[in-house]
Amino acid sequence: MDSGKAILVDVLQLLPLVEERLVGDGCALPDTLELTSLRQSLELLEVMIDKCDTVVSAEEIDSILQRINVARETVDLLSKRSSLNATNVQYRDMLLLPEHATTCEDRVVDYGKCLNMSNEEFDALIDEWAEDRDGSSVGVRSRRKSRVGSDDAKEQIRSDLVKLADTMKSKALWYRDLLVKDNEVLSKYTMKQEKQLDTVTQVASEASKLAKTTRLSLRQSLFMIASLFLLTVFMLMIFIIT
C-alpha cells in the first residue's frame, strides 16, 4: 500500500471519530480544550486529504472536504460559548496554558480520549503523518534543488555554446581573410612564373639561333683553313717543279 492510500485510510478512520465527538452524548461540550483538540484534528485531516488526490477521485475528495468544513463550522459555533471546564482529565493543550504550567508530572495525560483513541494510537497516527509530510517535503526540496541545478546547468551550457559560436565565427572570418590573401599572393606568383617562363623561352630561342650561327661559322672557318692549306701545298709543288 502506498503512502496516499495509507493516509486515505487514516482520514476515513479519524473523520468519523471527530464527527461522533461533536454529536455524541459523551462529549464535554462546550469545553474549550476539547474544542481546540477537535479543531486541530480537523486541520490535520485537511492537510492529510490534500495528499490523497492521486488515489481517489475529485468528487470523493470534495465530499470529504465538505464534511470537514461542516465539522469546523460546528466547532467555531461551539467555541463562541465555550469555557474551560474543571475536569480530572488533562489534555496535551492544557499543558501549554500558563495556569497549568505547574501540573503534577505524575498525573497521566489522556490526550487521545477526545477522539476515542489511546495515547499510543494517537502518537502513532501523528508520527506516521509527520513521516509522510517530511518525506514529501524532502522530495519537493530535492526536486526543487535538482530543477534549480538543471536550470543553472542549462544556462551554463547555453552560455558556453554562445561563446563557442563567437569563437568559431571569428576563426572562420580569419581563415577567409587568410585564404583571400593567399589567393592574391598565388595569383601574383603565377604571373611572375608566366613571365619567367616567357623569358626562359625567349632565351632558349636566342640560344638556339646562336648555336646555329656558331656551327655555321665553324664550318666556314674549317673550309677556309682547308682551302688555304691546299693552296699552300699547290704553290710549294709549283715552286719545287720550277
Structure, described:
With 242 residues, the chain is mostly helical. The chain contains four helices and no strands. The protein has a domain at 3-95. Helix 1 (3-23) packs antiparallel against helix 2 and helix 2 runs antiparallel to helix 3 (58-79).
Secondary-structure content class: mainly alpha
Biggest sheet statistics: none
Low-confidence stretches: 87-93, 100-106
What is the number of helices?
Answer: 4
Supply database-style keywords:
242 residues, 76% helix, 4 helices
Give me a quick take on this structure.
With 242 residues, the chain is mostly helical.
Secondary-structure map with pairings?
Elements: H1 3-23, H2 32-49, H3 58-79, H4 119-241
Helix pairs in contact: 1-2, 1-3, 2-3
